Amino acid sequence: MNFTKLLFNSKSQTRYVLLSRSYYTNRLNKATLYSRISPLGSPDKSVEAELEDWLKHGNNIRVAELQRIIHDLRKRKRFTQALQVSEWMNRKGLCAFSPTEHAVQLDLIGKVQGFASAEIYFNKLKDQDKTDKTYGALLNCYVRQRQTDRSLSHLRKMKKLGFASTALTYNDIMCLYTNTGQHEKVPDVLREMKENNVSPDNFSYRICMNSFGVMSNIEGMEGILTEMENQPHIEMDWNTYAVAANVYMKAGLTEKAIDALKISEQKLDNKDGTGYNHLISLYTSLGDKAELDELEEAEKVLEEWESSGNCYDLRIPNIVVVGWGLVAASYLDKGQEREAFECMKAALSLFVEDKKWKPNLRVITGILDWLGDEGSVHDAEEFVETLRRKIPVSREMYHALLKANTRHGKRVDVLLDRMKADKISEDEETKTLLAMKYS
């Protein structure tokens, strides 16, 4: 079972890796402008010196490359550096800023300097640049900082100008109400969208589903889900059913949560590491509520995730390791020691010292007992060797090795010497095991 490996990639980590890989090509290894900017370290470190130095050495700078750099820096949440590139490009007059470029810069100003600075930038724009894009960017700045009055006032202006014609605008307002705890207002925004002939998108529906969930209105959430399923322009995706599963879980409706997770899994692209991570986290949250078939389903998801190729990122979020540990404990409690052993091996293979997770000693002891009583010498030695690299050596580890070797008629002199070297003294159980060996 590979439950931990599925939980392994956090959204931000997966996004970072994919973006890094997508930017570079295998065609050239020579230095590029991005290769100079990317490793600058702190997201707050200035990139203007690198841009000026690049020009100073006679290198060309293409507008498309700068736009690509800005895009990647935004995706990696290096907003200060992205803003520096945008402002430098504008100041150098490398291209005439269209409403799209202005909207990007406005959004970055809002993220880095706050909505007040974004307002100043917006007010200085020429009338032809005050389009739905720049109006929308300013609205997003207000929403991000939970400025309810400013957001609603700005929305009214957008409506008068005919700029509130896309789902994105209404989604911003629903996010505002969500972030300010006014979940009861979210369904009204969805209703208004439809009345104004603006088609909700997947995100619109998911926000509303989540709000119904927060309000413990399961019927309302299910109504939205059914409406989505009947909309020809909506393509049902894994994320929607994951939202439903989360709502069911919080309401204690475990069976419905599991059904939703299974549908979510069916709709998940096997290359979507982020999606698998999220599903694993939900399976983990089920904890001891999940019966054996759900554990097997979680194992299936993890194995599919491994086959997606997303398990090769060495930066493993804690939730993946925790997931393997929980599933191992569940199997052990059900008397399925072999499965528990395999799951704990997966957890330990991903565990690094700086993670908050620590192996459950009860589970470790149970697995060691099983290895000593029923496991092979190879499995016992391999497991103990892995444990020694993760946690302090213990008498229980040696007892498992002693029992396994004794059962298979092997000598234990070397083991006893190792015990002494590790300063593990013999206790009554050790003596009993040795007596059985030589009886």
From TrEMBL:
- Family of the protein in this entry: Belongs to the PPR family. P subfamily.
Instruction: Identify one Pfam family in the record.
Output: PPR
Q: Which UniProt keywords apply?
A: Mitochondrion, Repeat, Transit peptide
Report the GO terms under cellular component: mitochondrion
Q: Which NCBIfam families match?
A: PPR
Where's it found, cell-wise?
Answer: Mitochondrion
Output the InterPro entries linked to this UniProt entry. Answer: PPR_rpt, TPR-like_helical_dom_sf
GO function terms (MF aspect):
mRNA binding
Q: Which organism does this sequence originate in?
A: Hibiscus syriacus
The record's annotation in PANTHER family points to: OS07G0598500 PROTEIN, OS12G0527900 PROTEIN
The principal location of this protein is mitochondrion
Kindly provide the name given to this protein in its UniProt entry.
Pentatricopeptide repeat-containing protein
